[in-house]
Write a structure and sequence with these properties.
heterodimer, A: mainly beta, 4-stranded antiparallel beta sheet, 0% helix, globular, B: mainly beta, 7-stranded mixed beta sheet, 54% strand
């Protein structure tokens, strides 16, 4: 079945450091890809998405590019802030988004001042 | 729009008691998903509905768990009887299946069974 593999955390970075969280997937067809973020004590929030190959999703300084050839959707940010500390989840769904999201296990990011 | 609303936010109950978790969908959304989150197992999909109809409940751990959608905007997840291993954060999420662009999650219910 479809699956998502994320790098294991926790990841600890200093403020203004460059962030990469790796995500690879296994799926039939051409899934839609997502990054969700969960702040302490809250539910998951959609951070960005991409629905076809070579699409780049971006939001709040975060970016991820849908790479079909490497089945990857790595999350990047050029300069992290303390407020970015959270758990980040990579996810995929069917091409029309009409199947349940399959989530990775999440990667905890801690940014220290 | 108020978003997906879950209640209660926190629930502490004794083993053997019945627990009911509630979820109000975003207006216009027609898919509803219940997830459970624990440190050990991460996010697990329990059950999902399309247009009020349960589509897949294979993630429901045991017969003690049941979920309903009495109408298009509301769902309940019931655990009867509850056990300590049911302690987790339970999330519901809704989506507009036609748009197909991800979910909106509620803030979750933190359940502790003692």
């Amino acid at each position: 079945g479809d699956s998502v593999t994320q790098m294991e955390g926790p990841v600890t970075l200093s403020e203004e450091a460059f962030l990469t969280i790796n995500c690879t997937y296994t799926a039939t067809g051409y899934p839609s890809l997502f990054w969700y973020v969960q702040y302490p004590g809250e539910g998951l929030q959609l951070l960005l998405k991409a629905t076809k190959a070579d699409d780049k999703g971006s939001n709040k300084g975060f970016e991820a590019t849908y790479r079909k050839e490497t089945t990857s959707f790595h999350l990047e940010k050029g300069s992290v802030q303390v407020s970015d500390s959270a758990v980040y989840f990579c996810a995929l769904s069917g091409p029309m988004g009409n199947t349940p999201l399959v989530f990775g296990k999440g990667t905890r990011l801690s940014v220290i001042a | 729009d108020a978003g997906v609303i879950q209640s209660p936010r926190h629930e502490v109950t004794e083993m053997g008691q019945e627990v009911t978790l509630r979820c109000k969908l975003i207006s216009g959304h027609n898919s509803l998903f219940w997830y459970r989150q624990t440190m050990m197992r991460g996010l697990e999909l329990l059950i999902y509905f399309n247009n009020n109809v349960p589509i897949d409940d294979s993630g429901m751990p045991e017969d003690r768990f049941s979920a309903k959608m009495p109408n298009a905007s509301f769902s309940t997840l019931k655990i009867q009887p509850s056990e300590p291993r049911d302690s987790a954060v339970y999330f519901c999420a809704s989506s507009n299946r036609g748009q197909g662009y991800g979910y909106t999650f509620g803030s979750g219910t933190r359940l502790t069974v003692v």
